[in-house]
């Protein structure tokens, strides 16, 4: 295969001087961040129950990474790190955001979209945001909603404010609620109940699916949520149509910007709860609505790929597909098919689930395709994290980052392109679950976890060491994390703990 001259120029300058205008390679970039999809939830990563032909095709045409990580095992901090290149635990208040939380990223911060704007890209967000909106104390969803994605570098944004199981259950386009009626103002509360609408806790509530603890507040589209909302009746979404709506908007953004370099950040709602797939996907997986939602997600990716093919943009587009954290089998909602959900093991043989510091919480599928630049059908064991997107795309587009920008973002472009280097792109990675502690440090094949970082502690470990100060695993020998080696490797545990403390104190980890 003949490698384009511009790629040789690109590789020659990685880690050296910024690219000149003549040397820059500016592919379109489509970054698909799905929600709660586990490492083992798609065919090319070992799923045997659900069928994901579009994602499997994407992997066959690109490279599948086997040691890629969301830098947090829950949504908001992962998205913060992805867009800023900064570990979310460095910034207080970046845990799972409420639906009325003010904007978490300060306008003026160098972000992934703002950097790409400076490189001449048209930038678009479609899908789940969950990084707060507006100013303190709480978001006002009536009138202009600012600051938000457009103040952080996006030219266009069509998004869900928080999560599907949180109010307000409306779409926002740029600065306004879609379908907003000023005669029916929106009020949101994450404290006391407001209004007189029925809730999921009321005996007479008519629900499509039953909501569990913490999900029994306002009922929208027959589904009870976290938090209370009144008003906005004409703007409320229909869960069954969310995937279709987001896919249509993503396709339209590509069509509207096909003549210029574009960056599309497509953050799907699938497969986050409540999982309410469109009726055309129900029953297709044999794994209940969870598996059906994976089929719906695969369809969405297929529509985006088909659009690139139709517009003859495939060869000049870098497509990345990944997840914001590991998968989980939950009983938060009962859709009537819950008994079938676990037939599809979310994380394969990895230990634990979403919100855990064990591998099942943060090791995620990661597929990169760029025809002519990324060798098809490959697999890479390079250690990479979502926090690396800023520095990597800066290198790709010939941008140089200011010293304060992306303090934890590493340039892993050589790993994406399959370049053979004597040293890995990363020698370490810090991981979190929700807040600022506990943390975990990945170093080579070893991972140190502060205290107990999982939802389901290993009973055998706890029987021998009821309150371990840390856990230490050799992932090369023990990928399922069954043997805590902290007691047998005290020197290594002490050294790694000291390095983790140093990384916390330094305020940055990106090499100069």
Descriptors:
alpha/beta; Alkaline Phosphatase, subunit A; Arylsulfatase, C-terminal domain; 512 residues; ten-stranded mixed sheet; disordered N terminus; 2 domains
Q: Could you give a short description of this structure?
A:
The chain is α/β, with parallel strands linked by helices and 512 residues long. The protein is built from 12 helices and 22 strands. Residues 1-23 and 455-467 have low confidence and may be disordered.
| Count of individual helical segments | 12
The proportion of strand residues reads 15-25%
CATH superfamily of the largest domain: Alkaline Phosphatase, subunit A
Low-confidence stretches: 1-23, 455-467
Q: Judging from the principal axes of the Cα atoms, what is the shape?
A: globular
Number of domains: 2
Q: Got a strand count?
A: 22
- What is the SS-derived class? alpha/beta
Report on the architecture of this protein.
By secondary structure, this protein is of the alpha/beta class. The chain has 2 domains: 5-416, Alkaline Phosphatase, subunit A, CATH 3.40.720.10; 437-506, Arylsulfatase, C-terminal domain (2-Layer Sandwich). It has 12 helices and 22 strands. The strands form 6 sheets. The chain has a 10-stranded mixed beta sheet with strand order 7-6-5-4-13-1-14-16-2-17, sandwiched between helices. Helix 5 runs parallel beside helix 6 (288-310). The chain is globular and about 65 Å long. The two termini are 34 Å apart.
């Amino acid at each position: 295969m003949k490698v384009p001259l511009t790629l040789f120029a690109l590789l020659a300058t990685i880690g050296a001087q910024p690219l000149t205008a003549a040397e820059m390679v500016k592919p379109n970039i489509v970054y698909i961040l799905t929600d709660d999809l586990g490492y083992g939830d798609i065919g090319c990563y070992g799923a045997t129950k659900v069928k994901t032909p579009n994602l499997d095709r994407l992997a066959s045409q690109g490279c599948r990474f086997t040691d890629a990580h969301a830098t947090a095992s829950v949504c908001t901090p992962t998205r913060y790190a992805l867009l800023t290149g900064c570990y979310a635990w460095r910034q207080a208040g970046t845990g799972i955001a409420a639906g009325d939380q003010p904007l978490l990223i300060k306008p003026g911060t160098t972000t992934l979209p703002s950097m790409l704007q400076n490189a001449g890209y048209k930038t678009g967000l479609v899908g789940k945001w969950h990084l707060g909106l507006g100013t303190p104390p709480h978001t006002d969803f009536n009138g202009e909603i600012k600051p938000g994605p457009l103040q952080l570098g996006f030219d266009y944004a069509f998004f869900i404010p928080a999560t599907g199981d949180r109010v307000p259950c409306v779409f926002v386009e740029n600065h306004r609620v879609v379908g907003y009626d000023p005669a029916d103002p929106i009020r949101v509360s994450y404290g006391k109940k407001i209004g007189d609408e029925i809730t999921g806790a009321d005996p007479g509530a008519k629900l499509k699916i039953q909501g569990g603890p913490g999900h029994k507040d306002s009922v929208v589209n027959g589904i009870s949520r976290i938090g209370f909302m009144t008003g906005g009746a004409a703007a409320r979404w229909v869960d069954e149509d969310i995937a279709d709506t987001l896919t249509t908007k993503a396709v339209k953004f590509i069509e509207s910007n096909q003549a210029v370099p574009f960056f599309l950040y497509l953050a799907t709602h699938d497969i986050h709860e409540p999982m309410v797939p469109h009726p055309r996907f129900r029953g297709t997986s044999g794994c209940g609505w969870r598996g059906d939602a994976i089929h719906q997600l695969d369809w969405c990716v297929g529509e985006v790929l088909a659009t690139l093919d139709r517009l003859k943009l495939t060869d000049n587009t870098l497509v990345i597909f990944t997840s914001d954290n590991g998968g989980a089998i939950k009983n938060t909602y009962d859709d009537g098919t819950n008994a079938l959900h676990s037939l599809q093991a979310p994380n394969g043989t990895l230990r634990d689930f979403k919100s855990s510091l064990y591998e099942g919480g943060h090791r995620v599928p990661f597929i990169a395709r760029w025809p002519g630049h990324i060798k098809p059908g490959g697999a890479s064991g390079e250690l990479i994290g979502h926090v690396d997107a800023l520095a990597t795309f800066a290198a790709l587009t010939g941008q140089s980052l200011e010293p304060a920008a992306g303090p934890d973002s590493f340039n892993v472009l050589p790993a994406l392109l399959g370049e053979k280097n004597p040293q890995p792109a990363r020698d370490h990675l810090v991981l979190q679950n929700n807040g600022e502690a506990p943390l975990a440090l990945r170093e080579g094949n070893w991972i140190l976890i502060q205290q107990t970082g999982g939802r389901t502690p290993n009973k055998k470990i706890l029987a021998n060491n009821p309150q371990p100060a840390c856990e230490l695993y050799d992932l090369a020998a023990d990928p399922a994390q069954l043997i805590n080696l902290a007691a047998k490797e005290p020197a290594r545990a002490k050294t790694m703990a000291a390095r983790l403390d140093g990384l916390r104190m330094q305020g940055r980890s990106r090499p100069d």
